[in-house]
Amino acid sequence: MSDLDIRPQVTSCGGRAGVAATPVRELLPGREVPLGNDTVVRRLLPTLGRRMVGAWCFLDHYGPDNIAEQPGMQVPPHPHMGLQTVSWLLDGEVLHRDSLGSAQTLRPGRLGLMTAGRAIAHSEESPAEHAPILHGAQLWVALPDAARGVAPRWEYHDALPVLEDGGLRATVIMGEMAGAASPGTAYTPLVGADLALSGDARLPLEPDFEYAVLTASGVAFVDGVEVPPGSLIYLGCGRSELALRAAVPSRLLLLGGEPFEERIVMWWNFIGRSGEEIAAAREDWMTGDRFGAVHGYRGARIPAPALPPSPLKPRGRER
Prior knowledge:
The chain has 319 residues and is mainly beta. The chain has one helix at residues 275-287; strands spanning 11-13, 23-29, 31-34, 40-45, 56-66, 74-80, 83-91, 94-98, 103-106, 111-115, 120-125, 133-142, 153-157, 162-165, 168-177, 180-181, 190-204, 210-222, 225-227, 231-236, 241-257, 264-267, 270-272. The longest helix has 13 residues, at 275-287. The protein is globular and about 55 Å long. Residues 43-141 form the Pirin N-terminal domain. Residues 195-290 form the Pirin C-terminal domain.
């Protein structure tokens, strides 16, 4: 998924300076951002006060939207560099195409994982014949320096490990939790899990990881704090378990990972280590063939926004 903001902010983050080494409870509301046509997303990472959770550096939550009489999601071809995209649906379908020639319809409970590496381009759209409701999340994972040059790759996994305990059903999307490991390729220690919750539950955690939880639907309490739908609660490090409670059947998304040591610069759909690297990627998208072409999408690709007048440089993990 693309950041379609015509004036994208420079986000510089990484390192341990802003990582809460002890448990905290920071409630972060989403910021509404238009995403082409009639789709509006809630941007939860990066946001005011929090830029990363482990290697997770971008989180858009969208829906549930009734698109029965609408075209639904329409995100034209756009580039990515230095990251992985993680596509996760709760309802509906999204057709993914990329410059490797991949064409895959994503559905609920199945992982779409795109590793950009040096360069890739893709598009996302609701199929012509689609379900009436669209609901899901799009996430980015920052690649560590040692993996930034890997060949671009598309993965689709329709069988993911599931943990069940009383009123909790946890699907491990990325990484590992309680011994259950996702087949998705990960380059840093992390976890992403879809939690279907009814009642009370206690979730095992890694004390060295930092964590956050998104409420996608329902009425959920995370460590005693009510987290409204479309909001994220940052939990810091130092927890070996997490208390969860749902007043009604609810869906949550758990994100966690070892704090990301490296400092990165994120602008538009690129992650690099310097402003010069970002500027070169923008130029390549506009004038070169580095990112390849996406075939099959009916429409023009997205042009890159203008670079900001100020230098692209790190400014710390938190805003």
